[in-house]
Amino acid sequence: MSTKKEIRIGLIGTGLMGRTHSNGYNRMRNFFPELEYTPVLKAVCSRNEEKVRKFADQWGYESIETDWRAVIARDDIDAVDICTPNNTHAEIALAAAAAGKMILCEKPLARTLEEAQTMTDAVEKAGVKNTVWYNYRRVPAVTLAKQIIDSGKLGRIFHYRANFLQDWTISPDVPQGGDATWRLDVDAAGSGVTGDLLAHCIDTAMWLNGGIKDVSAVTETFIKERVHQGTGEVQKVGIDDACLFHCHFDNGSLGLFESTRYARGHKALYTLEINGEHASIRWDLHDMNRLEYFDHSDESIVRGWRSILITDADQPYMKRWWIPGTIIGYEHSFVHQVADFFESLGTGEPCNPTFYDALQTQKVCEAVIDSANTRSWKDTDVQWKG
Amino acid sequence: MSTKKEIRIGLIGTGLMGRTHSNGYNRMRNFFPELEYTPVLKAVCSRNEEKVRKFADQWGYESIETDWRAVIARDDIDAVDICTPNNTHAEIALAAAAAGKMILCEKPLARTLEEAQTMTDAVEKAGVKNTVWYNYRRVPAVTLAKQIIDSGKLGRIFHYRANFLQDWTISPDVPQGGDATWRLDVDAAGSGVTGDLLAHCIDTAMWLNGGIKDVSAVTETFIKERVHQGTGEVQKVGIDDACLFHCHFDNGSLGLFESTRYARGHKALYTLEINGEHASIRWDLHDMNRLEYFDHSDESIVRGWRSILITDADQPYMKRWWIPGTIIGYEHSFVHQVADFFESLGTGEPCNPTFYDALQTQKVCEAVIDSANTRSWKDTDVQWKG
Amino acid sequence: MSTKKEIRIGLIGTGLMGRTHSNGYNRMRNFFPELEYTPVLKAVCSRNEEKVRKFADQWGYESIETDWRAVIARDDIDAVDICTPNNTHAEIALAAAAAGKMILCEKPLARTLEEAQTMTDAVEKAGVKNTVWYNYRRVPAVTLAKQIIDSGKLGRIFHYRANFLQDWTISPDVPQGGDATWRLDVDAAGSGVTGDLLAHCIDTAMWLNGGIKDVSAVTETFIKERVHQGTGEVQKVGIDDACLFHCHFDNGSLGLFESTRYARGHKALYTLEINGEHASIRWDLHDMNRLEYFDHSDESIVRGWRSILITDADQPYMKRWWIPGTIIGYEHSFVHQVADFFESLGTGEPCNPTFYDALQTQKVCEAVIDSANTRSWKDTDVQWKG
Amino acid sequence: MSTKKEIRIGLIGTGLMGRTHSNGYNRMRNFFPELEYTPVLKAVCSRNEEKVRKFADQWGYESIETDWRAVIARDDIDAVDICTPNNTHAEIALAAAAAGKMILCEKPLARTLEEAQTMTDAVEKAGVKNTVWYNYRRVPAVTLAKQIIDSGKLGRIFHYRANFLQDWTISPDVPQGGDATWRLDVDAAGSGVTGDLLAHCIDTAMWLNGGIKDVSAVTETFIKERVHQGTGEVQKVGIDDACLFHCHFDNGSLGLFESTRYARGHKALYTLEINGEHASIRWDLHDMNRLEYFDHSDESIVRGWRSILITDADQPYMKRWWIPGTIIGYEHSFVHQVADFFESLGTGEPCNPTFYDALQTQKVCEAVIDSANTRSWKDTDVQWKG
Residue ranges of the GFO/IDH/MocA-like oxidoreductase domain (chains A, B, C, D) (predicted)? Predict the structure, then answer.
């Protein structure tokens, strides 16, 4: 173990994503023991000292900070992991890039396209390693979908559809702002479901099916006013509660996307489907270890959608885990992303999605919001490199 | 039986819908024996004499005609059932109304809004009984969905989504025009999936969730040229192969619709879902005897989507059929529509959807096509009466 | 039509099976128009004159009888269809055979093996056409399962399992005896779930997987006493409420069977599964148009259970019905059996299952009951001809 | 952290279970930070020094041993975790008990009832803490099932059924004996699927539904001879490849169990179902985060099986993990068992299942094998304490 190259992590933010990333770092040694690089949990940062101390103890960080600038200033930090609300991503990333740190940034990259562009320029200029946590690419079933598509089994693609449905903000009593509900505060989040949920769908979609060319969208804010945690006042809600759009992909296929936090009965139902000339694929986060696959070349009388349980060693990432028939969970997508990041340090390849890739997703998000606001089609200007 | 009032049917068209309607008439006596009115299969009409004679023998029609005008001219015909391609609906319906016949017309009502308006005006002016075969309303699970929604169980509605996915025209070798493939010929069909498939989704949607106010759509024709059965020439394809749109309902909810014949793996996957404040409902034609229902008022630790098998006597139409656990099929939706039509003769109520109702669906279809052609939102001018 | 050979049917019994069979006869002309032989609904018989008159009117029978002996005595009856409770099957069948009538008998063939043997001897001696209504063989998905198995795709068979779960007798207030609940009266039914439900499972199992050699069973009667409809008295319940058994098939595979009317939540859940060396098949009556199929020869990374929607023209019976994606129901299994019976009149082949085949099923049922009563393994003495 | 009481673990065995247990210990600090007791990974033992050294490095063990006796002899070991093949459980456990160590033993407790009895006597006499890794009790959906049953929602129980189906030994080329396939060697394993798979089903069944009174079983060995890894010779296979049994529970309900490694298409399909008077429950390991629940008290027209996605904080163990809609995996059941074990150190309660509980399961297993061998019913003599 002494021969491993250590990368000293400074984690900023101790919410849900702070936990999933920390778990990722902690699992590497156990499940990817052969990797040349290894994380060291050097520091974790959050404004609340008591909370961050408890977090550090729970997850094994060596030290704490209460000001993110202190993390970046430290010489003993190689990589900064940004898990804070969206409105802080840009400032932290710019500072980290300037300090020559590697950056692992939570999604969406930023609140706006402008912020995202600045951040991308900064990391590219600084030449620092960078990646964005669009974790669903590393769900084995989704990774397998990518392999199947790349193999050409689907032929010409006609349709791509995805949605991300939740139901946790239906009650008007849910507040906006604050630690638990900053995602409902437009100043902190930048947008509502578009940046929070559709950004995931868009990242996966372009990874699987190439660039999105233009979009036509509609958004809705069902609950117009909510109490703000910060002010205690009832304030106008600035985010999109729901967002629907259709689009053209560069390859000529049609896309259809929907996201909402008002779909009663769905907790986190991220589903995707892609229809090709010869075959189709479906996936659904609630049953994330299954991939459904239809192959028209099967003999006609026994042709049907296959429900593939992704648990075998020849399927992506699964040789790391248990035995056929035994599934993994949500957190494993983050473990895989950590492992791929550390593996990429060895190979020198970028760890996708990079800031550049996430910038393309941001372009789509911005075009979607613009389209909804102007009730018109918008070009995205995406330059997808894949 | 001698006391029943006979309605003498003249069926025009002997394709798939000619068969489903004929089966409907033939089943009434067996499964709805108490109805006061009863159909008599007086005449069936098709241009091919040999074919229509065989059809008459198979389905029990007393006589045949080879010119639809002859059917309308006959005094011994009370009701005209129009099962011909879309481009003939208007002419036949106008003549039938002028002759004072009841009219049962296949969907979509017409190729264009203009035709549909003329037809609706004609039946209203003539005061003849009229109905349109949007059969999916009479699938017991869908009828139950209507009852649940009307009971108020869902509360405020946020979302409605539906799609109708097929895959039978993916091969470029499928021709357009002719008996089997007139649905691919824009002159015969008026439109592609919009009139053929989305019209079903729209009719059900407005029945369940009220009028659609405005739409934003995109269409695509994936295969640009096909051989025409009539001319034998390769000709431009004029229909929409796929159509996607989002919309606002009058009640403030958002709608999302998609239809295509290029979704590999789906034969006739008509699905719908409606999300309310308190409860949600899903349905899918491939498993048409099931309704999925989520009720947020269930105790939280045991709350989940219920898969309701609609086979019991207290569920719509099911006391007519067999025993709990034993399902019915596609054809039964037509049997139910026939029975409801004949029952409405006794009550004097309209048999929904009427031409008026189908005209509203036509307005949405026309707005959808216009929206796609102009890449802009379109108001529908729907006046939904429910 | 005038050229068809008419078979004059005398139906005895007007319960659920009287309805399914009558529907079968009525559908033949519509869906199997080419068959040389055709049924004529000559007479229907039930002890209650008012009821049978109504039934005759509803289903189109030409005449009524209130004594089954009268049906058999009539010269204008070619075939006797026995739909009465089990305790009358033997007497009617023996009389019908003696009168040289064709016999279509509801399942189970008889209450006891002895009765069944006598009946089989009688029809074989008389040389009359005979068949037993084990209708599930004619569900297209089950028929397709047979074709797949016969094709050798499964290889050596290891396991066969089936169950038939209901929940309609859980309440102690359900009576025994009488028109609706004779199945709970051991004198009328012979046995409980063994003859009513497991007999179906056994017939299908032997058709698909060959003879059952020996059995080890357990039965239970959960509700010990119920009011008898006939006497109005609370009486001991003589039937088996539940029956479970395992067995060896002649081919060396293991069988597992279960049936009950106390499985809360299941209306008529008949499921079967067969596991072979190379492939497996599953089916479930609640979703009867689907067949699940697993083929180990599929490429490993995309291998999974296929959900085959049996609606296409190249799948058994389905060219008779509608279009891909549109399903059929429970009643169609009886239509198919009627059609196969009439087709077999033309070919001169037996219409399976014959009395002989049903006798083999009876042997298994008797061995099962014996095994349960004696708490020991029993040989069945089945001679399966397939 | 310094205030926690440390329990020094000595792990014996580095196979699959060695990994799942080690993962469990490593996750405790992250997900159960409040527990008073904490594991310290003091030593791991395996005969192959290179392999055990690598394992120790991967999982964070402080030291290694190559002889299990050395582990037990060490003063700095508080608890021995036995993850070796079944034929070594008894000897190690007896030694550990004699040395006053806590014991966590993999299932099945032993190869035979006699061994299991001796082991149970030993730990009870020594008064050492003991538990057996029947991990499926700690799958949140299964734990929830227990809560629902204990709440009385099901009422009187009629049926319990479970199976555990695999397909990994179908090929005759799979050897017996050795590290990877000792489960096929009767000397190492004691039995085949009965001890390996049915033991899980039996433990869960008795936990949920009480003691099993008597059993009637059948077993089969489909492949009669396999190469032995140890000798390199083709030898007779002594294990049961498949085992089926029915039984009576103490509460009067009927049980049905099946296990096999020859069910093509099933990797590790452990399913269970329990039917009560008022409600029923189903679960399936392949979709382990879902529980299906049918409640007859639901309004009849909207009554159906509920698919409950177990991901919310008010469901067992789930407040430890992520957010609603995001699932966990197989390994988490072991994490939960570790946590419950350490929590029980604080409370002084036993950590179920104890050796005593596992002994009862062993009684059923032994009766099952005896029953199959003698083709007769066997009493189990289970004294279930629950």
Answer: 144-282
